[in-house]
Amino acid sequence: MMFVQSLPYINHHFHSPSLINEEQNAEYEGVCFYHDTKFYRSRLANKTPKKAGYFVAFWEKDDQLKNQAFSYEDAPDITLVWIIDADKKGVFMFPKEILLQKNILQTKSQKGKMGIRVYPTWESNLNQTALKTQEWQSHYFKCLST
Fold first, then answer.
1. Quick check: helix, strand or coil at residue 19?
2. How far apart are CA 20 and CA 23, in angstroms?
3. What Gene3D superfamilies would the database entry show (predicted)?
4. Domain 6-143 -> CATH class
């Protein structure tokens, strides 16, 4: 069972959705699912030992099996990025519009990003760039720690 199915938040809010595994992002437990009229992509972020924050891949394979940033055109309505770090848990719920605005999704005029770093509200001692990123990301973060 994948982590996302075991979280009370998912079970309560999404009523055990049917998950579509994204094999190319198995390391990040990549899945997609529908709930009501919205399409969701879910990723588990990884803690990195030498840098603050958590890293998550944001790529998919193109027709030639080459890695590329997620495209805006094919992006789901909401991308969920889960943080599970010992007793600290939370989820970022990024609408596709904010990912476009922050140049994370690929379009014909922007390259997009193959991965991003996320900074939950409990992260501190961040450099100026990370603080600016944490500021905009905090509007999309829900702490689930008990």
1. coil
2. 9
3. MepB-like
4. alpha beta
3-state secondary structure 36-83: CCEEEEEEECEECCCCCCEEEECEEECCCCCEEECECCCCCCEEEEEE
Q: Please state whether the predicted TM-score (pTM) of the whole model is above 0.70.
A: yes
Higher pLDDT, 93 or 21: 93
Nearest to 43 by CA among 103, 9, 92: 92
Residues paired with residue 35 on neighbouring β-strands, in sequence order? 38
Q: What is the DSSP code (8-state) at residue 122?
A: T
Q: For the range 60-66, what are the long-range contacts, defined as Cβ-Cβ under 8 Å and sequence gap of 24 or more?
A: 60/22, 60/24, 60/25, 61/24
Q: Where are the domains positioned within the chain?
A: 6-143
